[in-house]
Structures are given as structure tokens and as C-alpha cells.
Amino acid sequence: MFLPTPGFRVFFFVFLIAIGVFVFFPQLWMINTSFKTSADTFKLTFFSNPTLENFRKVVSDPKILTYLKNSLFVSLSSSFLATFVSVFAGYSFSKYRYRGRKSLMTLVMISQAFPQAVLLISIYLMMQRLGLLDNYLSIILSYITFTLPVGTWTLKSYFDQIPDSLIESAKVDGAGTVMTIFRIILPLAVPGMISIAIYGFVWSWNDLIYSLTLITRSDLRTLAPGLQLTYLGEFQSNWGNMMAASLFSSIPVTIMFIFLQKYFIAGLTSGAVKG
């Protein structure tokens, strides 16, 4: 049994505090700045003379509400479609044996190795030729592309734990493949599906580079590029409104994770232990 020495305890707590400061201090600074006036933005003070003016400006700005609506539509659509496709891809890799299966599985995983900024070049040219620039379909398809490999492998690990005898019993009872998937497999895979849906939603919600490149129309912009182009300029930046808008935009993701965190954790850890 390992008994930590006093020196190790000191090192552990110092390291823990350092990680906590590294993780939480930027968030504390963002919250603090959102309550500051423009004149106090760069002053090293914490919550002195707080004001809600930044939040009032953000909530009353119709452009921000439009960006929020666009982000919700794009994120929910890409999350749902990526999860839907991942279910069938993961089930295929888990329960079927066919020629080229292992090569295809490897190819799906290797696709995650390419930098997203590099892939943007080919995706942009592809969307340009298809006439999908300034179209929600371009970024929805891009988000699905990056969520699909993680979703497929996560759900494959989940489906691996479902015994084949359960599927065979359904066949004996006269259930076809589609009915077996929707009536038996999917209810058992709900935690895994929710974890992928949350992953896809957060990824698309926080994206900047793809939404900024593929969408240039102001009325179609999502939240991340909309906030950047609204509050951050070449000669002047409104950091108070930017921080308030960032806090405002984090509410949907925070609420989603609070209510679905147990499914998210269960889905990600489902394939970690075999037995």
C-alpha cells in the first residue's frame, strides 16, 4: 500500500492548486470583466462597482439573438444527424462481419489525425463547387464529418457489450433488422447516444473557423463568428460586451450538461471495462 510522504503531499496540493488556477482563473476573469464598465476593463479589480449594462446591451441586441437562434439550429441539426449516422455505423462495425470492415474502421479513425484547419481547404473547395457556401448545409455537413469518427467508435464499444443472443432472440421472434435496432438496441444505447449528441452539440456550438469561413452572410452567422465580428475590431474592442455575450452564450451548453451529465459519463465509460 502506497503511503504518501509529506513532500509528496505538498507537491500534490501545489500541483492541484496550479491546475485549478490555470483552469478557473480565465473563467473568473471573464465573469469579472462582464460586470465592468468600459473605463474599468483593464483595471486589476474584482467585482468593484459591478454593472449589468453589458448584459442589457447583449440581450437587447437583435443581432445577438439572431446569432443565437442560428447556432441552436445548426448545433441541434448536426448533433442529431451525426448521432443518427453513428448509431448505424457503430452497429455495423460491432455486429456484422464483411470484407473490408477492419480497413474501413481504421480509415474512420485515421480521419481524426488530419488537422481541421488543413481539411478546411478541401471542404471549402468542395462546398464551393456544390454551391453550398453561405448555406447551413455546408457547416452542418462539416460538423457531422468531425463528430462521426468519435461517435462511431464510441457507440461500437457500447454495442460490443450487448450480447448477440439478444439479437438472435429477436430474430427468432420474427423481428427484422430495422425493428431490432429501433425496438431493442437503441433503448439500451441511450447513454451512448446522448454522450455523442452532447459532444457533437458542444463541438459545433464552439466552432469558429468553419462557420467564419463557410458562412459570410450576416443573417446566417452563428454565435462564435457573430460575437467576434460584432465586438472585436481592428482598432477598438468592446471587451465588456464580449465577455457578457460569452457568458450568455454558454447558458444552453451548461443547462444541457447539468441535466444530461450522468448519461454523458455513462456513455463515454461504457466501453472502458470488458467483462
From TrEMBL:
Localisation: Cell membrane
Domain ABC transmembrane type-1 residues, every copy: 68-260
Transmembrane feature ranges: 7-29, 72-93, 105-127, 139-159, 180-202, 239-260
Main location group: membrane
InterPro entries in UniProt: BP-dep_ABC_trans_perm, MetI-like, MetI-like_sf
Membrane topology term: Multi-pass membrane protein
Protein name: Carbohydrate ABC transporter permease
Lineage of the species this protein comes from: Bacteria, Pseudomonadati, Spirochaetota, Spirochaetia, Spirochaetales
